[in-house]
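User: Show me a protein chain along with its predicted structure.
Assistant: Here is one chain, sequence first, then structure tokens.
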Amino acid sequence: MKAHRAAAGRRCDALLRAARVALAGLVLAALVRFVAVAQVPPPTRRPSSLTERLWEFSSSPIGPTHVAVLMPPQHERGARWPLLVALHGWGESNRGTEAGAWGWGHDYELGATDAELRHVPLRRSAFLGFVATTRYDRLRRDLARRAYRGMVVVTPYTPDTLDGDAGTVDLAAAYADWIVNTVVRRARAELPVLADRAATGIDGVSLGGLTALEVGLRHPETFGVVGALQPAVNRRVERVLGRRPPSPSPQRIRLVATRSDGLTRHVVALHDAMLARGVPHELRIIEGPHDYVFNRGAGGLEMLLFHDRALRGMPAE
């Protein structure tokens, strides 16, 4: 009887420990999401040169969702612009589809970055403290020689597919198809954008960088230019490259990492895998943390300037 009670006590203790661990995991997960939502630093309210509108979609692979549209200044009647799809990071994926869709426009202040690129000479303050002198001087000279013209940017809500289980991989594939068949198609029908592949690009930061690579490389018939800022590749090299179909013509691909980011070693691993498979691309390592200050400064600036050149068939700076 004593042995039975002891065994029962041990089972009870084990169940209590498991319950405590599970509860701690739930609390930690909730805390992580709370921090991601609560610690978004407020925008600095810099002047924006972009006009905004919001699209609502009643259905998508994740249900009802939103896409923000950021329009450049219309200096020329009848002008048509390149199209960039820009995807936000993980923090915004936990804040709802409307708030997430405004990630680039509001939380990352892309309109202010666009305005900085239109200012000649380019100000060092546009980088919010993160740029090497040699990089700044090079970009400043390039912008003095070739004016920044801009593009139409659409910024869909980006679902969290970081887990990498079968469900999220299937969701990533469905989301890629939805971006191409619904978002890009609507943009070409309703917005003053160039409808050809060469003038259509995709980019994103962190989670959005990973997703941009998956969407862009999965659909080379739609995206002639693919970029990724600090992409959350981790060990997902095969997920990014494994189902890459033959491209009708080479894509212009650029990976951007930063020296102070823990993800950089994984981005370099992806770079090495792309080299080994003969995938033409560029890797650029610049200054900046994995944080909002990077998105609002150097990250957004590098993204817009790269696509301003690439989507017009121009060489980089």
